[in-house]
Design goal:
This protein has 362 residues and is an alpha/beta fold. It contains 13 helices and twelve strands. Helix 3 runs parallel beside helix 4, helix 11 crosses helix 12 and helix 12 packs across helix 13. Belongs to the DprA/Smf family.
């Protein structure tokens, strides 16, 4: 009896996979790769291991394993972890050893500008100082700047397109050696694999899945960093973009993301808001520190859509209606109606096509 529907498609997929893998089976011996990893002092992390990044399980095709050099504990309790991991407030984000904080991807163009690298180093350094593990791809430009900035104050993870025995690109070898010493270098392919062009695109999905949010600092119109952002959006992760000069081709991709609803991010504090709970107390607020003002909370007197919309607005900066609706879990029509009521109450302000919390309500 001929196969139909899903069974036929599954059979075709298996046939395609078998045809693709058959030429590679000759001479295959996993012990060889494991011996290389052992000589390098690395670790093999498997699904179900304590160090396995649970966010990878959200992928349609998660990796079968991770080859790691450095501290594999930095991979644990990241995106996709249980709700308890997301109930922490910003005061909890203090360096307390490997795996203690959140994880955020900081990516961008290889052909970066001085402006982009300066912003990246400052942002990565500020995030790492608060216990956030900065994840990037080890490439020239923004990726390397992200690793350098994070190494100043905390931990960073580099996701490689090739095997962890090949520090690629060679021009970043010093940075990657330091990443291995104080952070972790990760790959889904075994030692010996060349970093082929197609592997850069497939590794971008790992960067997005291992992170709770992705920030693109600089990107041209067709930058590979945009694929990381799109993977993050597909996984339901927040995406931020750093604005640049409108005359800079290195920022065209970021401006494109902003028009599509990405959150405008200009510093570490704003990036941090992407991985902290909505409505979390701002530690810089005098009200938060004063018990006498305990009744003057952000959402006092609100419920329903108005509370959800005000809570979804970033503590700093503006957001488009589409972005607010997505964060609040409401339809755009409901969001617009709630914003109108909040504006009448003096609790939000309109800035062109975007909205923000009224001053004093941050």
């Amino acid at each position: 009896m001929p196969l139909r529907g899903d069974a036929a498609r599954a059979s075709a997929d298996w046939a395609t996979a078998a045809g693709r893998w058959a030429p590679r089976l000759q001479g295959l011996d996993i012990r060889r790769e494991l011996e290389v990893l052992e000589r390098l002092g690395g670790s093999l992390v498997l699904p179900g291991d304590p160090w396995w990044p649970s966010g990878l399980n959200d992928l349609v095709r998660p990796p079968h394993c991770l080859w790691v050099r450095g501290d594999p504990a930095l991979l644990a309790s990241r995106a996709g972890a249980d709700d308890a991991a997301h109930s922490r407030t910003r005061e909890d984000l203090v360096p307390a050893g490997p795996g203690s904080g959140h994880a955020l991807a900081l990516v961008g163009a290889r052909a970066s500008t001085d402006y982009g690298e300066h912003v990246t180093v400052d942002m990565a350094s500020g995030l790492a100082a608060k216990g956030v593990v900065v994840i990037s791809g080890g490439a020239f430009g923004i990726d390397a700047a992200a690793h350098r900035g994070a190494l100043r104050t905390g931990a960073t993870v580099s996701v490689s397109a090739g095997g962890v025995d090949r520090l690629y690109p060679a021009g970043n070898a010093d940075v990657l050696e330091e990443v291995i010493t104080t952070g972790a270098l990760v790959a889904e392919v075994p030692p010996g694999c060349q970093p082929g062009r197609h592997r850069f695109l497939t590794r971008n999905r790992l960067i997005a899945a291992m992170s709770e949010a992705t920030v693109v600092v600089e990107a041209a119109w067709r930058s590979g960093a945009l694929s990381t952002a799109h993977h993050a959006l597909e996984l339901g992760r927040p995406v931020g973009a750093v604005p640049g000069p409108v005359t800079s081709m290195a920022s065209v991709g970021c401006h494109r993301l902003l028009r599509q609803g990405a959150v405008c991010v200009t510093d570490a504090e704003e990036a941090l808001e992407l991985v902290t709970p909505l409505g979390a107390t701002d530690p810089d607020s005098a009200k938060a520190a004063d018990p006498a003002n305990a009744g003057s909370g952000l959402l006092d007197g609100l419920d329903g859509p108005e509370a959800a919309v005000l809570d979804a607005l970033p503590a700093r900066g503006d957001a488009a209606v589409e972005s607010i609706a997505r964060a609040a879990g409401l339809a755009e029509r409901e969001t617009i109606a709630a914003l109108g009521l909040l504006e009448l109450a003096g609790r939000v302000e309109r800035r062109g096509a975007s909205w923000r919390r009224a001053r004093g309500r941050r």
